[in-house]
Design a protein that fits this description.
The protein is an alpha/beta fold. The chain has one domain (about 20-175): Rossmann fold, CATH 3.40.50.450. Helix content is about 50%, strand content about 15%. It is built from 7 helices and 6 strands. The protein has a 6-stranded parallel sheet with strand order 4-3-2-1-5-6, with helices on both faces. The N and C termini lie far apart (about 50 Å).
C-alpha cells in the first residue's frame, strides 16, 4: 500500500466519507445508459405549465425504456402518470399510500386505468401524512433514482429525498421556489 493511498484511506475514515466501492456504485448508477427504475414524486400544488413539463419528461423517460414508479396524488404524480401512460403503461407502477377508495374522485378516474396499481389498505387508519411517508419509502425501495419536484418547505418530500440519499439512491431534486 502506497503512502498516498494510506493517507487517503485515513482521511476518508476521519471525514466519514463513503467507501470507494460505494462511490463506484453511485457513479455506475449515474452513468448507466440502460433502462433504470426511476421514482418520480412531487408536490400536489403545481402550476399547469410545470405539470406539462413533468408529463413530457416522464413520457421521454418511459419512451426510453425506463420503468417509472410514482404515487397517485394530483399535481406532479398525476402529470407523471399521464406521461408514462402515453409512452408505455406497462412500464408504470403506481403505489398508493392508502386504498383506492380513499383517493379523491379526480384521482380515482385516472388511477383505475393504471395496470400496475399497488394499494395499501392497511394504512387507511393512518393520517394521509403518515401513510404518504410510508408510501414514499416503499417507492424509494423500488427505484435506483428519485426525481423530486418540490418546494423547499415540503416537509414530507424533503424527508423522502434525505431517506433516498441515505439508501444510496441517485436523487435529483427540482425546486419550484
Amino acid at each position: 500500500m502506497t503512502g498516498l493511498f494510506r493517507a487517503a484511506r485515513s482521511l476518508s475514515r476521519s471525514l466519514d466519507l463513503p467507501k470507494i466501492d460505494e462511490l463506484a456504485q453511485e457513479l455506475a448508477a449515474i452513468q448507466q445508459t440502460g433502462s433504470k427504475r426511476i421514482a418520480m414524486l412531487g408536490s400536489r400544488h403545481v402550476p399547469i405549465t410545470h405539470q406539462q413539463l413533468i408529463e413530457m419528461m416522464t413520457y421521454a423517460l418511459v419512451l426510453g425504456g425506463n420503468r417509472l414508479v410514482t404515487s397517485g396524488a394530483q399535481g406532479t404524480n398525476a402529470a407523471a402518470i399521464r406521461g408514462a401512460m402515453r409512452a408505455d403503461p406497462n412500464l408504470l407502477t403506481v403505489i398508493l399510500p392508502q386504498s383506492l377508495s380513499r383517493q379523491p374522485r379526480e384521482s380515482r378516474d385516472q388511477l383505475e386505468q393504471v395496470i400496475h396499481l399497488v394499494e395499501n389498505p392497511a394504512n387507511d387508519e393512518l393520517s394521509l401524512a403518515e401513510a404518504s411517508s410510508l408510501c414514499n419509502q416503499e417507492i424509494v425501495s423500488r427505484c435506483q433514482q428519485l426525481i423530486c419536484f418540490a418546494f423547499h418547505d415540503s416537509h414530507t418530500l424533503m424527508e423522502t429525498c434525505k431517506y433516498a440519499e441515505d439508501q444510496r439512491r441517485v436523487v435529483t431534486p427540482f425546486f419550484f421556489d
